[in-house]
Write a structure and sequence with these properties.
This protein is mainly alpha-helical. The protein has 11 helices and 5 strands; from the N terminus they run H-E-E-H-H-E-H-H-E-E-H-H-H-H-H-H. The strands form 2 sheets. It has a 3-stranded antiparallel beta sheet with strand order 3-5-4. It has a two-stranded antiparallel ribbon with strand order 1-2. Strand 1 and strand 2 form a beta hairpin. Helix 4 packs across helix 5, helix 6 packs antiparallel against helix 11 and helix 8 runs antiparallel to helix 9. The longest helix is centred in the middle third of the chain and has 23 residues. The radius of gyration is 20 Å and the shape is elongated.
Length: 290
């Protein structure tokens, strides 16, 4: 993940995750979408503990924001009011988010401003700004004077991601021309060969990235820029979900590749109904709550 800060050693320097230690009276609120969903992550009940400490409510999720995607520089700077690309806060934001996405910072991990600042070689100010953006995008919940807790993907959000992906990918396939369908099918078969190699070499991270690229091509097939941009914003949530399954993913790779082959055949034949059915079955495998 050295691409984040231009130095592959940066990721190794990030502080080790540690379990959240908040007052037992706190219930962590997981901000998975613009509305707030209550959830307790083993930190005690929400009905009051014995510590007597008040647990501050997380700040509201202000907008859809980045929703886990890799936005373009224009989208980041203009659409989100983010700092200029390459600034200390931008680099900190990308590094911390990558660690959340790939599971280095698992759900429930307590993140410390001081530790992150020391690991990244910056002051606390850009780290604080980065954490504020991550909060606004639903990745973490901030507790003043205590730290930030990494949020989990809840069942409802997993279902939402699956449904969104189904709409995006089937829409693209429904609009694809015959010529484009044949061309994209050949491109996807090349990706399948790379996935087989990743499975053979047990390169789980590469397999995940190839899966993201594979599914994005179905959205791109329709040529709708707005749908393509929205699909990109979902990409990191999909990565987070797949990385959370890394313990079983290697064994499931052959089955997933078979699913992908059938999807390519349906695209080649421009059979939108069959594609929709196969994709729904595939999503049920990769999205446990579907």
């Amino acid at each position: 993940m050295g691409r984040l800060l231009g130095d592959p050693r940066v990721r190794d320097a990030l502080p080790r995750p540690r379990a959240a230690q908040l007052p037992t009276s706190c219930a962590v609120l997981t901000l998975t979408r613009p509305r707030i969903l209550g959830r307790t992550v083993g930190l005690g009940g929400s009905g009051g503990g014995t510590s007597g400490e008040a647990c501050p409510a997380p700040a509201p999720h202000r907008a859809l924001g980045e929703w886990g995607g890799r936005l373009t520089t224009t989208e980041v700077n203009v659409g989100m009011g983010a700092p200029p690309r390459g600034s200390a806060s931008e680099r900190a934001h990308e590094a911390i988010r990558e660690s959340i996405v790939d599971g280095s910072y698992a759900p429930g991990t307590l993140l410390s401003e001081n530790e992150l600042a020391a690991a990244l070689g910056v002051s606390r100010t850009p780290v604080r700004a980065a954490l504020a953006r991550l909060r606004d995008d639903g990745w973490i919940t901030i507790y003043p004077q205590r730290g930030a807790v990494v949020n989990a993907l809840g069942p409802e959000e997993i279902l939402d991601i699956a449904n969104a992906r189904h709409v995006l990918e089937t829409s693209g396939v429904a609009e694809v021309s015959r010529e484009a369908a044949l061309r994209i099918a050949e491109e996807l078969r090349d990706i399948l060969e790379q996935q087989r190699a990743a499975h053979r070499d047990q390169r789980v991270g590469d397999f995940i990235e190839l899966s993201i690229r594979f599914h994005s091509r179905f959205v791109e097939a329709g040529g709708n820029r707005h749908l393509i941009d929205f699909s990109a914003r979902l990409a990191d949530r999909q990565r987070q979900l797949l990385y959370s399954q890394r313990g079983t993913l290697l064994a499931r790779m052959p089955h997933l590749i078979e699913d992908h082959e059938r999807l390519v055949d349906a695209l080649r034949d421009r059979d939108a109904d069959l594609f929709s059915h196969l994709l729904r079955q595939h999503l049920a495998t990769t999205h446990p709550t579907v």
